């Protein structure tokens, strides 16, 4: 960070200076922002090349900057959409060079991942097969390597891992993302289950000890602007009955039972569900040890967040 700061001190534009100041505040904030910034550094391939840094994957770099701005709105002024490199140069300074190969990373992403996206989507594909195909694909493997690096069990940082998950699945074509998220394993296939835990971030960002109550998860999400937007979209796209009848009225929700909860299960619903990954909505939660009066609502939330019956 110190070296980069020295390289960027000559940047004179007010907006870039403000963004660099925000970066320093983020690094020192102690609120999880540093973890997301570390993902930005990896995804944007910030490294020293003379007086320049390089960003080989401009689309991916812009997307993780958007993740940063969604989670920490003070960075919104550092995000723009006029061209492929606008957010990068605004946030990092115009001395940050953009490296483009003959076939650039963003072009490959637009074409789709060669090995995975050519296959027709089928439910319950083996997680081991999907993981292997991702590793064999140049673009997917690059994204997966970053994700696994940040979500390492040995040095797990929950906020950083969640940001990496949001970036990873947000960077995948929809068909590939759902193939990974809805993969499955037969009961005794340990290799497959290990691959599933890696793909789904379970070992770092999903399993928390002790698990929070599903009521607390929903309430915490509603207090976070970015999470609240994702939850509202998920509820409207997948659980229209809830949105139509109760919206967020908990007294009304308590009158519903799971059998009254038809799920739309269409492509928009799947996209909204995928968007929840890498947020607190994806964390495992429980309804155990709650007062009896809170059980029905908690179980309703658990059903909405974690029931795969919607996508069977």
TrEMBL record:
<keyword id="KW-1003">Cell membrane</keyword>
<keyword id="KW-0472">Membrane</keyword>
<dbReference type="Pfam" id="PF02351">
    <property type="entry name" value="GDNF"/>
</dbReference>
<dbReference type="GO" id="GO:0009897">
    <property type="term" value="C:external side of plasma membrane"/>
</dbReference>
<feature type="domain" description="GDNF/GAS1">
    <location>
        <begin position="214"/>
        <end position="310"/>
    </location>
</feature>
<dbReference type="GO" id="GO:0043235">
    <property type="term" value="C:receptor complex"/>
</dbReference>
<comment type="similarity">
    <text>Belongs to the GDNFR family.</text>
</comment>
<keyword id="KW-0732">Signal</keyword>
<dbReference type="InterPro" id="IPR003438">
    <property type="entry name" value="GDNF_rcpt"/>
</dbReference>
<keyword id="KW-0675">Receptor</keyword>
<dbReference type="GO" id="GO:0007169">
    <property type="term" value="P:cell surface receptor protein tyrosine kinase signaling pathway"/>
</dbReference>
<feature type="domain" description="GDNF/GAS1">
    <location>
        <begin position="127"/>
        <end position="204"/>
    </location>
</feature>
<dbReference type="GO" id="GO:0007399">
    <property type="term" value="P:nervous system development"/>
</dbReference>
<dbReference type="InterPro" id="IPR016017">
    <property type="entry name" value="GDNF/GAS1"/>
</dbReference>
<protein>
    <submittedName>
        <fullName>GFRAL protein</fullName>
    </submittedName>
</protein>
<feature type="signal peptide">
    <location>
        <begin position="1"/>
        <end position="16"/>
    </location>
</feature>
<dbReference type="InterPro" id="IPR037193">
    <property type="entry name" value="GDNF_alpha"/>
</dbReference>
<dbReference type="GO" id="GO:0038023">
    <property type="term" value="F:signaling receptor activity"/>
</dbReference>
<keyword id="KW-0325">Glycoprotein</keyword>
